[in-house]
Structures are given as structure tokens and as C-alpha cells.
Amino acid sequence: MAGDSLIQEVLTFSENKRSWFIDDSVKSDGKMHLSTPIDPIFLVLPYLRKSQLACPLDQILKDDEFPETERLLSCSGLKHLSQVADKKGDEELNAYKYNEEKALSWLTRKTERVSEILRQKGIHVSSNNAVSATFVKTNTDTTENYLKYAHGVVSEYLADDLSARLSKHLGLPEPETGPNKRKQLASANTNTEATHKRPKLEAQEPLKNGALDLSKPEKVPKTSITAKDKARAKSATGSKNISSFFKKK
To answer: Name one GO cellular component term (predicted).
Structure first.
């Protein structure tokens, strides 16, 4: 936090085999750390949702596991907290109660803003990976593509259930559920196995009254004898089996 009034998020960019050249030396750790401001309401939102009743903000942000959370009270960004919650009582009480309808509207504006910035920067997002337009010949991204990608970015700061509600509020198509997808894959595998296991039926004799004619003996395929087999048999004529040498005379 910068002076307890502004929160900065530190992002780390790291790649293998990356280093820094500093003057005449080489630093093996080539990580890059970027500091960007973040709206403190994203950090307060989980505490607001957890509180069932209208409570003073200092009580809502009381966390024994993370005591530094109380420093959020001095953030200037919390003056817009009424965009996600209903304020109760007078200014001195400073009590709030979570309002999901307000929160979804606020998150929708945030998502649309991210989507618009991605479009203005010419970022290609249809492959679910942000790529600069410099490396893409033709950008075929639609408004829905940008909105879906922006929803993914904003969802990094949200609980899973709230992310799902935001997606529905944005009118995005629901992703295919896991069980249904597994069911389709299982069905496809079953059909494939049945195809592989199904034996090939050879040509049968004509049917009699709908049944196979089993009165005829099976046709035994004739084995052709090659010239090599004939020569081997001829050379073996008159020779004794090796076991005959060990019999009692």
C-alpha cells in the first residue's frame, strides 16, 4: 500500500533462461516486477459478502488471520463502496450491507471497461490467449470474445460463485459442464470400442428358413505345399528321430 491511501498490486513476469545485465555484471534472476494500482473494493468485497447484517466497516474488515486488512479503512477508493453495498445509519456509524444487484452492475462496468481497453489496444483474444495485433494478420475477434476474456481477467479477483453470477449477468454463454462433457466422451468411447470389437462376418451359406445350415461340414481350407517344403520332406526321408538313439536295444 502506498501511504495507506492507494493499493498497488505487484505482478511478476518470469521466464526460464532469463537474466539481467547490470553494468559489468549479470544477475541470474531475470524476473520482472510490475506495480499497478488496484481498486480496494475488490479486496473488501469478500468481507462484505460474508457479513449477513449491516455492520460498521471496521468490524467487517476485522480479520484475525490477516490483521493488516484493517489498513483498507484508510484507502481513498472506499468512498465508492456504496456502489456495491447499501449504507446504513449516519456517517459516524459507517455501516454497510452487501447488495448483490449493485455489485453485479459494478462488476459489469468493470468488465466492459477491460473489454473496451483490449479492443482499443488491438489485442487478439479469440484463442483465449492475449496476443498483440502485431503478430496477427487478421483480427476476427467479436464483442463477445472480448467480453469473455475480460470476464476472465476480472474473475481473477472474485470467488467462483460470484464469477458465475457475473457471467450470467453479462449474458455470456454458459460453459459446458464437466459431467455432461465426460458423458459425451464416454459415449463416444463406447461406440468406438463397439466398432473395434465387432467381428467381421465371413460369407455364410444361404439361410434355410432364417437359420444357418449346420448340416454341412465346415470347409477346411487347403494348405498349399511349397517346393521348399517338398525338398525338406524328401531330405528327411530315412532319417531317425534323435530320441531313438537313447532307447534300450
So the answer is: nucleoplasm
